[in-house]
Amino acid sequence: MNTTQELARYAIETRYQDIPEPVRRAAKRLMLDTLGCAVGALGTDPGIAVRRIVQRSGAVGPASVIGTGQKTSIATAAWANGRLGNVLDMDECYKVQGHHAQAALGTALALAETHALDGRALLAAFTLGFEVGVRLGNFFSPRVTVDAEGRTRGWTGLVGPGQGVHAACTAAARLIGSSPVELAHAFGSCAQYMVGRDWSRQWGRDVDLGTLKYADTGWNAQGGLMAAWHAREGVRGVRDIFDGDSYAQVFQGVVLDPVAMLENLGRDWYLPETSIKFWPCCRWIHYALTALDAVLRRHGLQAAEIDAIDLHSFPMIPYPRFADQGDPPNLVAATFSFPHAAAMVALGVPAGPAWFTEASLGGLAAREMRRKVRLLDEERAYDPAAWGLADKVLKVPSRAVVHARGQTFSAQSDFALGDAWDGAPGFAEQDVFDKFARMVKTLAPYSPQWEARSRELIDAVMGVDDMDDVRELTRLFDPAR
User: Fold this and answer.
1) Is 17 helix (H, G, I), strand (E, B) or coil?
2) pLDDT of 362-373, one tens digit each?
3) What is each CA distance from 286 to 229, 333, 376, 438, in whole angstroms?
4) b/e for 436-473, b at 16 or more Cβ within 10 A?
5) Res. 187: pLDDT tops 90
6) Does the fold of domain 283-413 match that of domain 3-273?
7) How far is Cα 123 from Cα 221, in angstroms, rounded to an integer?
8) What H or E segment, with its residue span, contains residue 153?
């Protein structure tokens, strides 16, 4: 049995009961977080666009667009929910290697609802989709590091989008009854839906990144679904896609490591290691933001007292978007701006869609605070030992220095809030619940009862494996209920 076939066999034949209880608990928590991110995005400009596109599609069907009351086709719902999950850039991130949860859940939820499947089927599909996504990343490239010249290594434009498509494909294949052979064929078709590297040559070099990021995560969800459907109908892509050099020929610089893809298959679980994001911005920013948040909290510093903020971190610059101190032209630009994220934390703006209001993007207080933020290199930024390579974790040594009250206050952090490894700033399951409750508040204008329903929603998701019919869950997310 070759690498492609072995991964497909694992993804299809692993049963719900084979997933350890701590992994299942982490998967439910991640599912809740992903749904919260999707709901929180609905009132943003990109979120409104998603709802309008669903309406324009003209498709009426059995699958729900989460938090909207819209019912549409399986494919459209998979796209919409996958897209919404990533809009705020507040969704999980696996070691800055990629996002897997939104595409896997977008597809799995649409299929499970349509076919009235039980919660165990949904949870297992979501979990195995995530696991395949991470293992694909291990196959494509080593963990992210920085070389002596400050260039990123171990990450390509292929990784994140590719993982999302395969994660969604795996989830879909399980729920439509695919065999391991059919999923192996579907993996070959997934290559046809992947975003390549060309975008990365320009991405980040312009202050205005546009309002669609480097990969439409909804397209990943829909692409994975289509690959699984095609394979069920006898249509296949490249045979044994992970056993040849197809990717190496198309994408220069990609490291293909089939051993890493299959390492400890069925014994090691990656989902519990993913990072929960407590701020709506690129994960690279969270390390310096964690240090800044610690300084402000420790010393009770108020915005009016701050004269300057120095952030010493991984210099993913020369990309000007990360360091530009001007008004972000749109939500996407804001999610990649160190000065904007630091300004929002310093001003005490609640993490979530509130970071992207007109006042937050272009208001005087936000503008003045962004101008006080300076981005500098951290002295240990290029030290592989400082990045935790030997410990198989991801550290990004970062420091925040705040000048206020005629004094200098500082804090250092190797990890970001939300990281799941020993030594990282602690967060509890309740913190994830609180984040979810904050996200669902955004729908209160649509339904006065919505905010009060957050506890019911949390209990439903955390108990999803006891549900006989996933439609019980999707009905709870209908704001008109």
Assistant:
1) helix
2) 999 999 999 999
3) 38, 16, 15, 19
4) bbbbbbbbeeebeebeebbeebbebbbebbebeebbbb
5) yes
6) no
7) 16
8) strand 152-153
pLDDT at residue 309 in the model:
98
**Count of Cβ atoms closer than 10 Å to residue 61 Cβ:** 15
64 pairs with which residues across the strands? 71
Q: Which amino acid is at 331?
A: L
For the chain, give every domain's residue range. 3-273, 283-413
| Predicted TM-score (pTM) of this structure | 0.94
Tokens of 346: 């310093």
Position of tokens 């400890």?
A: 264
Residue 133 CA to residue 412 CA, distance in Å, equals 32
Q: Are 312 and 401 contacting, i.e. CB atoms less than 8 angstroms apart?
A: yes
**For 3-273, CATH number?**
1.10.4100.10
- Of 97, 356, 316, 105, the C-alpha closest to 211 is 356
What tokens were used for 41? 């995005």
Helices 338-347 and 283-299: crossing angle in degrees, nearest 10, is 30
Quote the pLDDT of residue 172.
98
Q: Does domain 283-413 have CATH number 3.90.550.10?
A: no
Over residues 99-132, the pLDDT tens digits come to 899 999 999 999 999 999 999 999 999 999 999 9
**pLDDT value at residue 436:** 96
